[in-house]
Amino acid sequence: VSTQSTGLMLGEEDKETMDSISSDLPDKSLLPVSLSQKNFDDDPLTSSTTTAESNSISFTITVSEPEKHGENVKAYVTYKVTTKTTHPDFPPEEVYVRRRFNDFQWLRNQLTTQHPELLVPPLPQRTPTAFLQRFDEFFLDKRRRALELFLHRVASHPKLSVSNDFLTFLHAKEWESEERGITTILSKLNFNWAQTSPDTDPDFEKMTNLKNYLEHFQQQLVAINNLLTKTHSTGKEYGAGLQDIGPAFLLLAQLENELCEGLTRTGTIISDEVGKGFVNQIDYEEQYVAEVFVEYHLMAQAATDVLINRDRQVVKATQAQQQLQFLKDELTKAKTQAAIPEENKSTFMKFKERMTVDPSSRIRTLEERIAEGEKSLEETVAELKKTTSILIDEMEKFHSWKLRDFKTMLVDFINFQIEYHKKAQTAWEGLLPVVQGISKPSKRSTWWVSSNK
């Protein structure tokens, strides 16, 4: 994701708070080059330029400069969305608009409503914690990156990228989200699948396997994220404790002569290299590892919504089939009754025929309704097949994104671990000869008299 400067515009009191928060952020010098100087120019989703598949329209989209508006409970944040595109409805130069998080929610809601068969990328969830942190510089940059990735994913999609709602979102200057009736639709983990079976769904086994995968995938992501949150909490305490050990070694070193340098450098390494590095490692995991798990939990929920939409179409096709069969059974009964000779009909049957539609007219009506039902069923089945084909393509896209993003996360995580341990190892290796060189004085001395203290 393009790493733009946040350009946060806050008051003086807010700036003091931001300064204190900035001092707690991870040491960027400890990040691998692939993260401290993030560059995804070869990646169509995370680079600033994205080309939609099959329609050759390119978009260069950045989200930057979160800006605070209003005060107290009425305060909110907008982001600058800058777009340069080859779309014929856009001017050749860059255009920019300011959008708040509600506007992004409106866009996703519109896309999922207009295209229920497509995998619409997720947005970061709105939580009570997020509300409390909404002006935190670290939180704003994390959300900015997530919003930019959302727009890149939409822009790379051949159908979503040409949606009128998406194009309006990118360039409309006059924008009143309240008038657009924004509603927050939160996907739920505990969803109810429509009732399908092998008899009603030709792809039942394939879709069931996909449902089971998504359900277990989400459960494992939640479990990993919970474990990371728990270990991060205790890990930061451990890292802070290591940083406290360093000064204690320095105080001990002041009492010694021969041991002074060894103790001093040991304390410095424990405090600066090991302790601070350990805390930076946890901060790194919170920013770049846990973030991937959270995003793909939301992505799996979005994929689940697409599957639920297909299940509804299966039910619709099943109901159309059942209705058609009912009409055919009725037609069979009507023809059977019409074929009964008049002298063989009971008094009740003759009375019923006089009180209802003429049998020949009923047969014609049923035949017309059956013809309409067959046409409707044919269209419904064709729509289901189309939806299934699109869904499989969307799941392939989901899998491709997952492979790329998890690979990037794991490679960067491994590089971070290597650099962290290399740095500590180099410091310890440099200290080892110093400690090994400590020796007893060649002549007897009252060492306590000549100690530093």
Distance N to C terminus: 55 Å
Total helical elements: 10
> Biggest sheet, in brief?
4 strands, antiparallel
- How much is the radius of gyration in Å? 33 Å
| Low-confidence runs of at least 5 consecutive residues | 1-46, 176-193
Strand content: 5-15%
Mean pLDDT: 76
As a percent range, the share of helical residues equals 55-70%
Compute the number of strand runs: 4
Would you list the SSEs in sequence order as H and E?
A: HHEEEEHHHHHHHH
In order across it, which strands form the biggest sheet? 1-2-3-4
Based on helices, strands and strand pairing, what is the structural class?
alpha+beta
What is the molecular shape? elongated
What labels would you give this structure?
10 helices; elongated; 453 residues; alpha+beta; 4-stranded antiparallel beta sheet; 4 strands; disordered N terminus; 61% helix
Describe the overall structure.
- This protein is of the alpha+beta class and 453 residues long.
- It contains ten helices and four strands, in the order H-H-E-E-E-E-H-H-H-H-H-H-H-H.
- Strands 1-2-3-4 form a four-stranded antiparallel sheet.
- A hairpin with a 6-residue loop joins strand 2 and strand 3.
- Helix 7 packs antiparallel against helix 8 and helix 8 packs antiparallel against helix 10.
- It is elongated.
- The N terminus is likely disordered.
Please outline the helices and strands.
Elements: H1 12-22, H2 33-36, E1 49-51, E2 58-69, E3 76-85, E4 95-100, H3 101-114, H4 128-132, H5 137-155, H6 164-171, H7 204-253, H8 260-338, H9 347-355, H10 359-436
Antiparallel strand pairs: 1-2, 2-3, 3-4
Helix pairs in contact: 7-8, 8-10
